[in-house]
Prior knowledge:
This protein is α/β, with parallel strands linked by helices. Helix content is 54%, strand content 12%. The mean pLDDT is 95.
Amino acid sequence: MKTIGLIGGMSWESSKLYYESVNTKVKEELGGSHSCKNIMITVDFAEIEKLTFEGDWDGIGEIIKDAAIKLERAGADIVLLCTNTIHLVSNYISDNISIPFLHIAEATGLEIKKKGLRKVGLLGTRFTMEKDFYKGYIKENHGIEVIVPNEADRKIVHDIIYNELVKGQFTEVSKEKCLKIIKTLQKDGAEGIILGCTELPILIPSSEVEIPTLDTGTIHAQMAVEWALNNNN
Protein backbone atom coordinates (compact mmCIF):
# COMPACT_ATOMS: atom_id res chain seq x y z
CA MET A 1 0.00 0.00 0.00
CA LYS A 2 1.30 3.44 -0.95
CA THR A 3 1.06 6.37 1.47
CA ILE A 4 -1.54 9.08 0.77
CA GLY A 5 -0.59 12.66 1.60
CA LEU A 6 -3.50 14.89 2.66
CA ILE A 7 -3.47 18.69 2.82
CA GLY A 8 -6.23 19.42 5.32
CA GLY A 9 -7.71 22.13 7.48
CA MET A 10 -10.02 23.71 4.88
CA SER A 11 -12.02 23.16 7.02
CA TRP A 12 -11.15 20.55 9.62
CA GLU A 13 -14.76 19.38 9.27
CA SER A 14 -13.96 18.17 5.75
CA SER A 15 -10.54 16.86 6.78
CA LYS A 16 -12.04 14.42 9.25
CA LEU A 17 -14.34 13.18 6.47
CA TYR A 18 -11.31 12.53 4.25
CA TYR A 19 -9.57 10.64 7.06
CA GLU A 20 -12.67 8.55 7.65
CA SER A 21 -13.17 7.93 3.91
CA VAL A 22 -9.66 6.69 3.17
CA ASN A 23 -9.68 4.35 6.15
CA THR A 24 -13.18 3.04 5.43
CA LYS A 25 -12.24 2.34 1.82
CA VAL A 26 -9.06 0.46 2.82
CA LYS A 27 -11.00 -1.65 5.31
CA GLU A 28 -13.60 -2.45 2.61
CA GLU A 29 -10.90 -3.47 0.15
CA LEU A 30 -8.52 -5.36 2.46
CA GLY A 31 -10.69 -6.37 5.40
CA GLY A 32 -9.45 -7.35 8.81
CA SER A 33 -7.67 -4.66 10.80
CA HIS A 34 -6.26 -2.81 7.82
CA SER A 35 -6.17 0.97 7.85
CA CYS A 36 -4.92 3.54 5.37
CA LYS A 37 -1.28 4.62 5.35
CA ASN A 38 -1.51 8.38 5.23
CA ILE A 39 0.08 11.63 6.31
CA MET A 40 -1.95 14.81 6.90
CA ILE A 41 -0.68 18.36 7.12
CA THR A 42 -3.33 20.76 8.38
CA VAL A 43 -3.18 24.45 7.54
CA ASP A 44 -4.84 27.22 9.55
CA PHE A 45 -8.14 27.88 7.81
CA ALA A 46 -8.46 31.39 9.27
CA GLU A 47 -5.36 32.40 7.34
CA ILE A 48 -6.62 30.78 4.13
CA GLU A 49 -10.05 32.37 4.55
CA LYS A 50 -8.55 35.84 5.03
CA LEU A 51 -6.40 35.55 1.91
CA THR A 52 -9.37 34.18 -0.05
CA PHE A 53 -11.51 37.23 0.59
CA GLU A 54 -8.56 39.51 -0.09
CA GLY A 55 -8.17 37.81 -3.45
CA ASP A 56 -4.58 36.85 -2.61
CA TRP A 57 -4.56 33.52 -4.41
CA ASP A 58 -0.78 33.58 -4.80
CA GLY A 59 -0.46 33.83 -1.03
CA ILE A 60 -2.72 30.80 -0.64
CA GLY A 61 -0.73 28.99 -3.32
CA GLU A 62 2.50 29.47 -1.37
CA ILE A 63 0.92 27.98 1.77
CA ILE A 64 -0.40 25.01 -0.19
CA LYS A 65 2.92 24.53 -2.00
CA ASP A 66 4.77 24.43 1.31
CA ALA A 67 2.36 21.79 2.66
CA ALA A 68 2.73 19.64 -0.46
CA ILE A 69 6.53 19.77 -0.36
CA LYS A 70 6.48 18.78 3.32
CA LEU A 71 4.23 15.82 2.52
CA GLU A 72 6.57 14.58 -0.18
CA ARG A 73 9.57 14.93 2.14
CA ALA A 74 7.67 13.05 4.85
CA GLY A 75 7.20 10.06 2.55
CA ALA A 76 3.84 10.56 0.84
CA ASP A 77 3.48 8.82 -2.54
CA ILE A 78 0.51 10.90 -3.79
CA VAL A 79 -0.97 14.24 -2.69
CA LEU A 80 -4.62 15.21 -2.24
CA LEU A 81 -5.88 18.71 -1.47
CA CYS A 82 -8.85 18.14 0.87
CA THR A 83 -11.01 20.98 -0.42
CA ASN A 84 -12.70 22.02 -3.65
CA THR A 85 -12.20 25.79 -3.80
CA ILE A 86 -8.46 25.87 -3.18
CA HIS A 87 -7.91 23.73 -6.28
CA LEU A 88 -7.97 27.15 -7.93
CA VAL A 89 -4.25 27.22 -7.06
CA SER A 90 -3.56 23.49 -7.44
CA ASN A 91 -0.77 24.30 -9.92
CA TYR A 92 1.30 25.37 -6.91
CA ILE A 93 1.21 21.70 -5.91
CA SER A 94 1.63 19.98 -9.26
CA ASP A 95 4.45 22.31 -10.32
CA ASN A 96 6.50 21.78 -7.16
CA ILE A 97 6.39 18.08 -6.30
CA SER A 98 7.63 15.01 -8.15
CA ILE A 99 4.96 12.61 -6.87
CA PRO A 100 1.42 12.39 -8.36
CA PHE A 101 -1.25 14.95 -7.48
CA LEU A 102 -4.89 13.82 -7.81
CA HIS A 103 -7.14 16.75 -8.79
CA ILE A 104 -10.60 16.61 -7.22
CA ALA A 105 -12.28 17.59 -10.49
CA GLU A 106 -10.55 14.68 -12.24
CA ALA A 107 -11.93 12.21 -9.72
CA THR A 108 -15.37 13.83 -9.90
CA GLY A 109 -15.41 13.91 -13.70
CA LEU A 110 -14.59 10.21 -13.92
CA GLU A 111 -17.39 9.40 -11.48
CA ILE A 112 -19.89 11.49 -13.47
CA LYS A 113 -18.94 9.59 -16.63
CA LYS A 114 -19.29 6.29 -14.79
CA LYS A 115 -22.85 7.27 -13.89
CA GLY A 116 -23.58 8.15 -17.50
CA LEU A 117 -24.56 11.76 -16.76
CA ARG A 118 -24.16 14.40 -19.46
CA LYS A 119 -25.26 17.58 -17.67
CA VAL A 120 -24.78 18.30 -13.98
CA GLY A 121 -25.36 21.16 -11.57
CA LEU A 122 -22.58 22.48 -9.33
CA LEU A 123 -22.93 23.83 -5.78
CA GLY A 124 -19.96 25.23 -3.91
CA THR A 125 -18.39 28.50 -2.87
CA ARG A 126 -18.79 31.49 -5.16
CA PHE A 127 -15.23 30.90 -6.35
CA THR A 128 -15.92 27.28 -7.27
CA MET A 129 -19.18 28.08 -9.03
CA GLU A 130 -18.06 31.20 -10.89
CA LYS A 131 -14.43 30.56 -11.83
CA ASP A 132 -13.48 28.08 -14.52
CA PHE A 133 -10.88 25.93 -12.74
CA TYR A 134 -13.52 23.33 -11.80
CA LYS A 135 -16.40 23.33 -14.26
CA GLY A 136 -14.01 24.13 -17.11
CA TYR A 137 -11.77 21.22 -16.13
CA ILE A 138 -14.69 18.78 -16.19
CA LYS A 139 -15.97 20.12 -19.52
CA GLU A 140 -12.55 20.10 -21.18
CA ASN A 141 -11.33 16.76 -19.85
CA HIS A 142 -14.57 14.78 -19.68
CA GLY A 143 -17.00 16.51 -22.06
CA ILE A 144 -19.65 17.06 -19.37
CA GLU A 145 -21.76 20.21 -19.24
CA VAL A 146 -21.75 21.89 -15.82
CA ILE A 147 -24.36 24.49 -14.88
CA VAL A 148 -24.52 26.69 -11.77
CA PRO A 149 -27.31 28.50 -9.88
CA ASN A 150 -28.26 32.10 -10.66
CA GLU A 151 -26.41 34.92 -8.91
CA ALA A 152 -28.81 35.22 -5.97
CA ASP A 153 -28.75 31.48 -5.34
CA ARG A 154 -24.96 31.37 -5.64
CA LYS A 155 -24.76 33.95 -2.85
CA ILE A 156 -27.07 31.87 -0.66
CA VAL A 157 -24.92 28.75 -1.05
CA HIS A 158 -21.66 30.67 -0.63
CA ASP A 159 -22.86 32.35 2.57
CA ILE A 160 -24.11 29.07 4.03
CA ILE A 161 -20.71 27.50 3.44
CA TYR A 162 -18.61 30.27 4.98
CA ASN A 163 -20.97 31.37 7.75
CA GLU A 164 -22.14 27.93 8.84
CA LEU A 165 -20.67 24.76 7.32
CA VAL A 166 -16.98 25.47 7.83
CA LYS A 167 -17.84 26.24 11.47
CA GLY A 168 -19.59 22.90 11.92
CA GLN A 169 -23.13 24.34 11.80
CA PHE A 170 -25.69 22.37 9.79
CA THR A 171 -29.27 23.64 10.02
CA GLU A 172 -32.58 22.48 8.62
CA VAL A 173 -33.24 25.97 7.25
CA SER A 174 -30.04 25.97 5.20
CA LYS A 175 -30.69 22.44 3.99
CA GLU A 176 -34.11 23.45 2.69
CA LYS A 177 -32.63 26.46 0.90
CA CYS A 178 -30.09 24.24 -0.86
CA LEU A 179 -32.71 21.64 -1.77
CA LYS A 180 -34.81 24.39 -3.38
CA ILE A 181 -31.79 25.54 -5.42
CA ILE A 182 -31.14 21.96 -6.49
CA LYS A 183 -34.74 21.69 -7.68
CA THR A 184 -34.18 24.73 -9.88
CA LEU A 185 -31.03 23.22 -11.37
CA GLN A 186 -32.94 20.02 -12.02
CA LYS A 187 -35.61 22.01 -13.90
CA ASP A 188 -32.77 23.53 -15.94
CA GLY A 189 -31.72 20.07 -17.09
CA ALA A 190 -29.24 18.91 -14.47
CA GLU A 191 -29.13 15.10 -14.32
CA GLY A 192 -27.00 15.11 -11.18
CA ILE A 193 -25.56 17.55 -8.63
CA ILE A 194 -21.91 18.05 -7.77
CA LEU A 195 -21.67 18.88 -4.08
CA GLY A 196 -18.55 20.91 -4.76
CA CYS A 197 -17.82 21.83 -1.17
CA THR A 198 -16.61 18.96 0.97
CA GLU A 199 -18.98 19.92 3.82
CA LEU A 200 -22.12 20.05 1.67
CA PRO A 201 -22.85 16.28 1.83
CA ILE A 202 -23.21 16.63 5.60
CA LEU A 203 -25.95 19.22 5.05
CA ILE A 204 -27.65 17.61 2.05
CA PRO A 205 -28.35 13.87 2.36
CA SER A 206 -28.46 12.11 -1.01
CA SER A 207 -31.73 10.46 0.06
CA GLU A 208 -33.46 13.86 -0.05
CA VAL A 209 -32.45 14.67 -3.63
CA GLU A 210 -34.33 13.17 -6.60
CA ILE A 211 -31.27 13.04 -8.87
CA PRO A 212 -27.81 11.62 -8.11
CA THR A 213 -25.51 13.72 -5.93
CA LEU A 214 -21.75 13.58 -6.13
CA ASP A 215 -19.94 13.72 -2.79
CA THR A 216 -16.67 15.10 -4.11
CA GLY A 217 -14.60 14.52 -0.99
CA THR A 218 -15.57 10.86 -0.72
CA ILE A 219 -15.08 10.30 -4.46
CA HIS A 220 -11.66 11.96 -4.26
CA ALA A 221 -10.55 9.99 -1.21
CA GLN A 222 -11.73 6.64 -2.55
CA MET A 223 -9.96 7.13 -5.87
CA ALA A 224 -6.75 7.88 -3.99
CA VAL A 225 -7.09 4.62 -2.07
CA GLU A 226 -7.62 2.69 -5.29
CA TRP A 227 -4.41 4.26 -6.59
CA ALA A 228 -2.53 3.48 -3.35
CA LEU A 229 -3.56 -0.18 -3.45
CA ASN A 230 -2.91 -0.69 -7.16
CA ASN A 231 0.50 0.96 -7.48
CA ASN A 232 2.73 -1.11 -5.27
CA ASN A 233 5.77 -1.25 -7.53
